[in-house]
Amino acid sequence: MTAPLPLVIGNWKMNMLTAQACEMARSLVDRLSTVDGIEVVIAPPFTSLHPVAQIIKNSRLSLAAQNFYFENNGAYTGEVSLEMLRDVGCDFALVGHSERRGSFGESDDAVNKKVRRAVQMGVTAVVCVGETLGQRKSGATSNIIETQLSKSLAGLSGEDISKLVIAYEPVWAVGTGVHATAAQVVDVHKLIRMILRERLSFPEKAAARILYGGSVGPENSKQLLREKQIDGVLVGAASLDFESFCAIINSALES
Ligand code: 13P
Prior knowledge:
Blueprint: E1 7-11, H1 18-32, E2 39-43, H2 46-56, E3 61-65, H3 82-87, E4 90-95, H4 98-104, H5 108-121, E5 124-129, H6 133-137, H7 141-152, H8 158-162, E6 165-168, H9 182-199, E7 209-213, H10 218-225, E8 232-235, H11 242-254
Parallel strand pairs: 1-2, 1-8, 2-3, 3-4, 4-5, 5-6, 6-7, 7-8
C-alpha cells in the first residue's frame, strides 16, 4: 500500500474578512502552483467559502468547512448543511473540534450524526478527538480517546473509516502555545490505530489518516512531521500567517 500524501489543514477559525481570506487564498494558490506530493486544505469561515472556492478552483488547494449541521435542510434557523457546503466546494469538513465540544456543547452523538452525513455525502470528515489537561494528568487519556472514537464512529464500516481523517488535538495544546511533544503524539496515534483495529474491530486496511493539531508552528512542525505515525497537521493560529503556514507546508514536503 502506498503511503498517503502528507496532509496540512489550516483552520482559520473565526478570523479574516472576505478580502483577507481571498488574498491569503490567492497567495497560497500561487505558492503551491509548483509544489507536488502534499495535500493542503484551508478552512475559512462560512462567509468566505464561496469567494475562496472560486480562487482555488483547479489549484492544489482544497476547501474545508469548520462545522455543519447534520440535517440536509429544513427549519433549523442559523444552521448550514453539508449539502450546502459541498455545493460551494467543500470536500472536507471538521467535525467535533474541541472548541465546538467545549463552547457549543457538541456531543459525541452529534459528532456521530455529522460523521455519518459526511460519509453519505462523500465529504471527508476530519474528526477531532483529544483529552483535557486534567484528563491527561489523571491518566485518563486512553479512556477518553477510546470513548470519543467509539461514539463518534458508531455505525461506520471499515470502508467508511478508510476515507476519514482523525485529528488528535489535545485540548491543552489548542491555542495555548504548548504543543504536545512528537513522542506524546506518536503514542496517542499508535493508541488510536490500536483502538480502531482491536477495540472497534475495523480491518487493518481501514486506515484513517491521523493528524496532530495544537500549537503547531514552523518551529515544531518539522519534528512532528518527521514521524511516520503522523500523517499531517491541523494548524490554527499559524495558518493565519502566510509565511508561517508555508514553512509548515515545507516541513511536510521534507518529511
Ligand atoms: P492552534 O494551532 O492555534 O493551537 O489551533 C489548533 C486547532 O484548533 C486547529 O484546529
